[in-house]
Amino acid sequence: MKHSHLLFVFSIASMLFLTSCFDNKETVYDNAADIPVNREMIAELTSPPHVPTPVGKRKAKKLIVKMEILEKEGEMTDGVKYVYWTFGGTVPGSFIRTRVGDEVEFHLQNHPNNKLPHNIDLHAVTGPGGGAESSFVAPGHEKTFSFKTLNPGLYVYHCATAPVGMHIANGMYGLILVEPEGGLPIVDKEYYIMQGDFYTKGANGERGLQPFDMQKAVDEKADYVVFNGKVGSLTGDNAITAKVGETVRLFVGNGGPGLVSSFHVIGEIFDKVHIEGGDLINKNVQTTLIPAGGAAMIEFKVDVPGTFILVDHSIFRAFNKGALGMLKVEGQKDKKIYSGELRDDIYLPEGPGIQSMPTTGEIVASEVPAKSFEEQIEFGKQAYMQTCFACHQAEGQGVPNAFPPLAKSDYLNADVDRAIGVVLHGLTGEITVNGQKYNSVMTRQMLSPDEIANVLTYVYNSWGNSKKVVTKAMVEKVKNRK
Ligand code: CU
């Protein structure tokens, strides 16, 4: 062989060698199982509505997840307690963020104070039971197993210990994200939201510690349908936030156990939805379906300020069972995109309509009666916030030209029996309150005599009113007059 020939072979070989070195950096593996892992790291776990730092360009690693199961009492809504079973102390459980090719070493720890064994089925696992078979763990023990993340996507995890439905119904679910090579596109804000349905012995709103009701769960008759484990987890001060111009990504899951979610944000259109948490992207979506045991990644840019309401568009769940959250957006208005109210004109084609609530059937008083003035005020405020607040507003200020104020109301303070009658029977026609005429319709309110006494006592003892105390006997006297 000639010398020059040899040199040629050598230079080709070294070129191949160099190329393969460069290649190594961006090798695309057909099979995710072949992606090598180097180094290990402790996974960052977060409580809802927060999510861990994006994976970005990091290499696949051995990722150590330590998840502690805690059975603990929490509050479903004002005055209603519930014993939740949790992954990491929250419902939904801690958010786990991985990338394709990670080798996850999963430590499932069952706190010694817990009463029951549990396990975990992660939908991101390829293997029997999604890990459930290897993770069944008694109180005071820790089980370890490992798995490789083969498929990118957003996955539900949940407890799969019998009775499975009961463990899920008590809050044992969460989300694990598997990002693709190179990570998801970077956005300004990311949040973690998970819907769940709850079944309690008492009816919705019935106070006290409420045990789980198996029969209602089997019948799928939920008392509460909520985001992030309780009524109000994403409203008021707990609302998620963004600024005008920012892009928002919501990781939304549905733990079930029973109901499918029609997830919708009032006043916002989803620019992109990773349907069912997978690769397929739908654009310009109004409402996306999130199956029980499924998830979706939702992205949109916020263009105008305001409060955007997150709901399950099976709408009684939102306004009567708790599936309601808020996204508060701050920033400059854009009148081109949304004008706000331009005019308020009179429109009376057929005179004022008359509406009434169904009047058949007695209202069952399921409530524990208030034992003191303080309890009357407390219970009355809860009833006010559920029933009266939408029209008469938080501070009893009413809505100009539509709903009369209750604060410093001469109409209210002049006649207690008349006020009781209005709550009992509703009111239609013109009245004058503090010198202003109102002509709207108040429907009959579905409140028990106890609740009417409480709510009126609350109203009379708020906002500069006459501080009267209304009793159940007073309500019944007015009720029996007709
Ligand atoms: Cu469990």
TrEMBL record:
Top-level EC class: oxidoreductase
UniProt keyword annotation of Transcription present: no
First and last residue of the signal peptide: none
Entry keywords, A to Z: Copper, Heme, Iron, Metal-binding, Oxidoreductase, Repeat
Reaction(s) catalysed by this chain's protein: nitric oxide + Fe(III)-[cytochrome c] + H2O = Fe(II)-[cytochrome c] + nitrite + 2 H(+)
Name under which the protein is recorded: Copper-containing nitrite reductase
Biological source species: Mariniflexile gromovii
Entry-linked Pfam families: Cu-oxidase_3, Cytochrom_C
InterPro entries in the cross-refs: Cu-oxidase-like_N (IPR011707), Cupredoxin (IPR008972), Cyt_c-like_dom (IPR009056), Cyt_c-like_dom_sf (IPR036909), Cytochrome_c-type_DH (IPR051459), NO2-reductase_Cu (IPR001287)
EC number: 1.7.2.1
Keyword Repeat: yes
Oligomer status and interactors: Homotrimer.
SUPFAM superfamilies, per database record: Cupredoxins (SSF49503), Cytochrome c (SSF46626)
